[in-house]
Amino acid sequence: MRILIGTGSSGGHIFPALALADSLRSRAHEVLLVLPQKDREHKLWIASGEIKYIHAAKITFRISIKNIAGVWFFLLGACESLVITIKFKPDVVVGFGSLNTVALIFWAWIFRIRTLIHEQNVAIGMANSVLAKLVDKVAVSFAETQAALNIRPEKIVLTGNPLRQGLERLDKQEVLDFFKFQEGKSTVLITGGSQGSHHLNTVCLEALSNYPKKDSLQVIHICGRQDFSWLKDRYASLGLTHKLFDFYAQMQYAYSVADLVICRSGATTVAELQRFKIPAILVPYPFAHAHQLANAQVLGKIKAAWIISDAELTPQGLSAKFEELFGDPQKLESMRQAYLRLSIPDATEKLTQEVLASA
């Protein structure tokens, strides 16, 4: 089969698309990935197989001169999408959200090519909400999304969110040795996403400084490039066992050793927490149209995670939470056990089967 996959430029879109592409290629199907032009130089995408690039549009609902350029790039990308579709002759077209996939799905609909879209978040994105009425199948990551879709129920399938290959639990002792960490200490993983979060970085560092039993902790902190230099100096002055990274690709190591994660609640992050069953303190990104809050509530509802808004996150509150959780190991264990209430499918395999069945 020939499968065309289109996606936006965020990691939350691209990583599930890459997982699906790898799964399909492993079954000897021909896959063409379509990405925005600005991702042309990224080594991760370049290494992932055959890729075509189109001009990406950014259009807002505010009156702005930038929208003129946005419309132009959207039309240019639509023309490029048409050429790609005609030349590749796909059996199925799969979209992973964002405005950049609209034209690909539209041309597939015009040419009567089978179509499927995947929604990573609980709250469906604007592009996918429009495309849901056109496509043959809508795959969702969360059961909560199904009720929000105003389409025939038989078009919707719960697949979960595909994760990158290699994200499997490793032996904890081996990972402790890998990081030169000590058995018996509690390991905290802090990450603000691929770009980092200055507020999260600052508050977490202050909370660790204030925590009276910080010698019982060891920290993996993935902070982004912008804050790496000053955090390196501050951690050195704290004398706290830690590993600091501006970016860390091998997250299976970090997840396999973490006793608690402090992080945003993007769809991919929530899916990774589900896979590794790690207690979490979730701080939803405040400018993501409430998508991250809805994602976080999936884990908050079953008490696998504690949710706090970005505005309410303080060093004192976080330090108190350390005292509460690490002072009573049974609370962390209850959070881990809470994940058993969720039905977590093998999302990559299930989505792959849906794509193949739709042809």
Q: Predict the CATH topology of the largest domain.
A: Rossmann fold
Q: Can you tell me the CATH superfamily of the largest domain?
A: Glycogen Phosphorylase B
Shape: globular
- Quaternary structure classification: single chain
Mean pLDDT: 92
Gyration radius, rounded: 21 Å
Order of helices and strands: EHEHEHEHEHEHEHEHEHEHEHEHEHHH
Strands ordered across the widest β-sheet: 3-2-1-4-5-6-7
Taking pLDDT < 50 over at least 5 consecutive residues as the criterion, the unreliable ranges are: none
Count of helical segments? 15
Task: Tell me the strand percentage band.
Answer: 15-25%
> How would you classify the helix and strand content by structural class?
alpha/beta
Tell me the number of structural domains: 2
Topology:
Elements: E1 2-6, H1 11-26, E2 30-36, H2 43-46, E3 51-54, H3 66-88, E4 92-95, H4 102-110, E5 114-119, H5 126-131, E6 137-140, H6 143-146, E7 156-158, H7 172-179, E8 186-191, H8 198-210, E9 217-222, H9 228-238, E10 242-245, H10 251-257, E11 260-263, H11 267-276, E12 280-282, H12 291-301, E13 305-307, H13 315-326, H14 329-338, H15 347-358
Parallel strand pairs: 1-2, 1-4, 2-3, 4-5, 5-6, 6-7, 8-9, 8-11, 9-10, 11-12, 12-13
